[in-house]
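Our platform keeps sequence and structure together, in a single record for each protein. This encoding replaces a full spatial description with a residue-level series of whole-number codes. We quote a single record here, exactly as it is kept in our systems:
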Amino acid sequence: MRFTFEQEQNIAYQIHEFDKEAFEAVRNIRIPEAQEILNETTNRPEKTKAAALDRLNRAIETANDLLSEHPEYYSQIRRARRAVKKSDHLRWKLAMSAKHVARGEARKLMCTLMNEEDLVQEGFIGLLRAAKRFDPERGIRFSTYARWWVRAQMTRAIETTGRMVRLPGGAVEQLRNLRRIADRLEHDGIEYDIELLAHEVGIDKRRAQMLLSQGGLVSLDQPGEDGLCMGDRMHSESSLPDENAFQKEALMMLKESFSKVLDEREQYILINHYGLDGTDSRTMADIGKSINLSRERVRQIEVGALMRLRTLY
């Protein structure tokens, strides 16, 4: 459901009030460990309230863990948790009101590295990040503010998925422009070289060469230092690493990370949806049936879990 500008403003102010209530409740909890987290100082000035909200949530969880030692703060902890739950619910509604932004950007950015549906999921994470930082005092539509967070999240996902060496967001954008122009020239039957591509994008030839090499656009007929071209080297089984060993080790590390951050239900959803246990990936509807949840609820849990993993790692 899309909201009007007035509805967005109203929801944003309600979120602000619930956040304020949660902060007040935690400040009244005289547990040193929780107060220390809440009063942490950062090395740089905070331009948004996202970091403060993260500290608030950590302080509440710490106070809740120590509740048995400080039962007198039960009502304050309960009040803080209830306020955070309400603000998170409204934040989710605000984020999902701009789902069309995520789908629109996904259609623009989909490529061989990531399909449209995966990009939409990344876009939802971007919407949640935007909702966490949205300030109604800016006087703009939430969808306008969120579009840049969505695009940044998708761009980061593409460049992280597509290459082992991470490129900055600006470089990824330039690489995408180089590829788009190359595709257009090929479609029109026009011969081109790197110098022409660099001129079209507005960068120098040397940078274009670097970006295209990092982007994986290397000819299979190009000889390497050993005199063998990439195509010949790929057929040499003796030079191939044990791919299964790499996959098993990566999966083991991934599951260990899951167990530290996610609860059992979130782990179950991610492992089954992406086939991380060695079996075929399952649809959200199928997973939902197995744990008595709707497909939409499974998707919500997955987006929240992925966002928490991205934040911590």
Q: What stands out?
A: Confidence is low (pLDDT under 50) at residues 215-243. Residues 250 and 256 are 10 Å apart (CA to CA).
